[in-house]
Amino acid sequence: MDKIKVLITGPVNGSFTDLSAKLTSLQKSKAGPFDICFCVGPFFSDTNSTSGTSDADGNGNGNVKSNADSRSSSIQKELEGIPLPLYFCDVGSLPSGYTLPGVDFGAEKAKDDAEISLDDDDNNDDDNDNENDNNDDEGVPKRSKGIIRVAPNVHYLHGISASASSSATTTQTADIVNIYPDDMSNDKTYLTVAFVPPNARMHSLQSAILESKTNHASYVGCDLLLTSDWGQGMASSACIAKDDLVKLGNDNSNSNSNSNKMNEVGSYDVAEMASRCRPRYHVTPSILLGQGQGPIPEKESFFIQSLQYTNPPSAMASGVMKNYHTSRFLSLCPVVDAKTQKKNGKTKKYIHALGIQPLWSMDRITATKIPENTVVVPCPYTDEHYEKDGNRNGSGNFASGTVASGMNMNTNMNMNSSS
């Protein structure tokens, strides 16, 4: 089958005009057109708040409502300018007067074979294009629940409540869904996408649905995992290539400062969810690095692309070990205007392109095949890695020799979306 051409971006932070301009340009470029876009990190920003506006009487709130209403209308028009289907899961800070429809918020690395070059200097490589020989899901719903349309092409990955309580119906939940890039025109072409709300905790109502799906007997993995935090253990792992270690301040030249702190970077809960989900691509916002120490004089964000890492095998009922595909970690910078991006260069990249053949459409031999001369490193979220780096100060517990405790490594499914 044809590969799905995917764009992923870092935090938008309300820069919808800049994002729309970039997406429109890419749709007309040699690399385009693309089928779908995913954004990680805060999507909205309240930086345009008018709370300081004064009225004629000096009360400080004269034009607040009218300005907020105007900004709300402007935001909606900007969102309507997004030229392709776009999905986000981290709302961020909603501007004053703007609400999302349907939601009451109340109170040295190897080149990725799937990467699509966005300039003329790189090669345009895609995933291995192999047809599936036996995975033919029947009765897959055309649209998953828990996805809210905010604008014609903009969708909020909200998830569905794991509780029957009406008070929990507006709580965003972690979930795994099937997303159809061409808006249902082809009910057999979809990506399996996992998403985790900011600050979600394992073994809570927020993560219950995701945990249940990853425990399903046929679960294999997903194409994308979208989170707002790094998984704890990634920054200090062998997954980070040498040039990126310098950005992190975790190279040998700085072994007694930032490098000692890298094993504390990220969320233990996200690490456990990442190990459960087995994403082909785990995408997060970049983190601010540097505190006047080592090679980084000020706090900055950088684009990070990890080496491929393994997902630990599991034992089937027959006792035979079942192997899985490899994963890759991507961390993207915030969206900026074209002039700033040109100045920043690729080290602060905010948009990345992939050509993905969906995991569900691949036979296991194809999915687990590792191309020649590709460096693959161990999973950064195993018990062995955490013991090595002393990463046991999180909320989860890791089982000896595998990944997070509480997860059944004998259960793996080919994901169907929520009905």
From TrEMBL:
Record-level Gene Ontology MF annotations: RNA lariat debranching enzyme activator activity
Residue spans of biased composition, Low complexity class: 405-419
Ranges of Acidic residues composition bias in the record: 116-138
InterPro entries per the UniProt record, alphabetical: Cwf19-like
Top-rank taxon, per record: Eukaryota
Bias-annotated ranges (Polar residues): 392-403
Cellular component GO terms, alphabetical: post-mRNA release spliceosomal complex
Region named Disordered: 50-74, 116-143, 386-419
GO BP, sorted A to Z: mRNA splicing, via spliceosome
Name used for this protein in its record: Uncharacterized protein
Organism for this UniProt entry: Chaetoceros debilis
